[in-house]
Amino acid sequence: MDYVIEMLNITKEFPGIIANDNITLQLEKGEIHALLGENGAGKSTLMSVLFGMYQPEKGTIKVKGKEVQIKGPLDANDLGIGMVHQHFKLVHNFTVLQNIVLGIEDTKHGILRMEDARKKVVALSEKYSLLVDPDALISDITVGMQQRVEILKMLYRDNDILIFDEPTAVLTPQEIDELMQIMRDLKAEGKSILFITHKLNEIKAVADRCSVLRRGKYIGTVNVEDTDKEAMSEMMVGRKVNLTVDKGEAKPTDVVLEVENLTVKATREGHTKNLVNDVSFKVRKGEIVCIAGIDGNGQTELVHAITGLDSISDGKVILNGEDVSKKSIRYKNTHGMSHIPEDRHKHGLVLDYNLAYNLVLQQYFEKEFNNHGFIRNDKVNEYADLLIEQFDIRSGQGKETITRSMSGGNQQKAIVAREIKKNPDVMLAVQPTRGLDVGAIEYIHRQLVKQRDEGCAILLVSLELEEVMNLSDRILVIFEGSIVADLNPKEVTVQELGLYMAGAMQDKTHALQGTAHAKQDKQEEGAQDEK
Q: Which domains does the chain have, with CATH numbers?
């Protein structure tokens, strides 16, 4: 067999954990080979070993049949190995062309010579349909375009072994389709691709073979054509996983959260556009309303304004009929609002506290946990044990575990447990499953639907279109800080939703938004009549 990469019996350890435990991975020439596994399974670590960012404790690496030592990314590049990282490695105030040649610039007498580089970049971008303006600044182009720049960086260096680490996490459906086609074209050229992903649909779309890792160990390699998604997810998680969301019809009743003409102005000098522009909507008990949009279109600022993490420039936030626009975050928390934040480390947890304290962060001052200003640790521990069992939060030392040392999925479960257990009237769930594996996603989706069915109003913010389509009862599309569409998930396709998100179907939507508000008011009248 003609292998271009052989990673044989690789072991990589970090303090207290074996990230890669005796893993063997073999990449054939001219194939797309997917690497699948839960959070913390060791996929990115293994690829970082191949790219020279980590040195393994044990094992050997062969490139094109020869044993090699890869001491750093420059060694990897010399061997023809390139990598597109999950978080792009681009200099934002450089142009596309400057980023592509960075590190292997052509100079004469100390002066940069860019003419030949420009010709090569233009030729490559035309050959692979990676059309990007070489003179555009990275800060001015979309995330999808930035990814094309990363791919061009590899092609410019004549890399023929390409590693893609979670390449679709921040792309629209159209950009994902384009990337899949680019990968097929690269394969047709004889390139060999290693492709890390959580998304089984993408593996089915482009991969030839798939290797599965679980908890740092190699589980097996399968031919993608002969293996269904259910079998791959079972290999990955170790049990059967329900890949569709089971939920009945929504039965919305009273309005819990009302946002009226909310505006958030830009604080940075030179920015004149509002970050959130005159946004109005309502969320009722017993429904999941999803705000869908491409990252960076104002959803973060909108949620921060509603929850109180940032101030409102104009408009109102009404919770259970009360204007809470000027109220404190604690007031909103104790009056029926829960928030699963987008950035779990920055806004969700105190990483150096133990798990028990993180589970009472918003209630430690209540009588149950507090006696004349002193925390009742016995009650805190009792409560923590209850949540750990109920929400299956896994950690090395239970409630005593320092939260920083827990896996991302279990940190997320801790936040979900804390926010749900407060029995909120409205829950803002922002990217609740970002970066989680299918097992953890299935669990969190089930919890959100259960909350909805128990009468909670849920405002979901998600970049994952599958999640948007599966969970929502209504979809509000945000584009450049404005709500441009109010859609029924049963009546819209993923492709149409992607076009709304990219602003391509905006013109139709202003009329649509008016009818949506009228439709919503009618539904409310109907709900009142039923009562």
A: 3-237 (3.40.50.300), 255-336+424-530 (3.40.50.300), 351-418 (no CATH)
